[in-house]
Amino acid sequence: MRPMPDHRRYAIYAVPEGALYRKGADWLGWDSVAGAEVSGPEPDGLPLPRARLTKTPRKYGFHGTLKPPFRLAEGESLAALSGAVAELAAGLPPVALPGLRVARMGGFVALLPEAQPEDLVRIADAAVGELDRFRAPSSAEELERRRRAGLSERQEDMLVRWGYPFVFGEFRFHMTLTGGFEPEIADALVPLLAGHFAAEIAAPVVIDSLALMGEGPDRRFRVLERHALTG
Predict the structure, then answer these.
(1) In order of start, what are the domains of the chain with their CATH numbers?
(2) CB-CB neighbours of 150 under 10 Å
(3) Would the pTM of this model clear 0.90, i.e. be above it?
């Protein structure tokens, strides 16, 4: 496990490996595996500088969220969380994504699977539900921040119960590429980023591990360890 004291929060992510991860990390400017800033070539024609486009998602690294960031519950430990994640991963099978595409989700742009496999939904549901004992209750400030997005009644229920509105039936797997911008900026980015990631998203993508993430004092997330999906 990567030694880093004083983690602010933890999360469970799907962090791909290989060419797709390298391209995604270079685009965002943060390599959560190496724990270092990186920078690749800037695509031509961007409506804003890449550093501005990626400022919000950069600190999280290139990933798909399975269990959103949470503070550790009182009485729990990183070692106990690690053991629970390992046990969970051992009972779940790897998932092959049926292809990825670049799309707009509200004001931000992300990579989405062409279809969301049920096995992937089951992994996310298990990560949220079975690891919930490690999550400290959300503060009033955290709840209010989530509500600013404008939530449906069901999403409000999910927020209150699980600390995040987009879980279980509201879950939609995606790998975020930009922060939120006006629709015209996001729409302009879709074809540009589709071209930028064309080679990487044409290849098969397999989710074969759970990445236990830790947020350091610098508010950057790092991969602390991976647990292979072997169920």
Answers:
(1) 9-228 (3.90.1140.10)
(2) 6
(3) yes
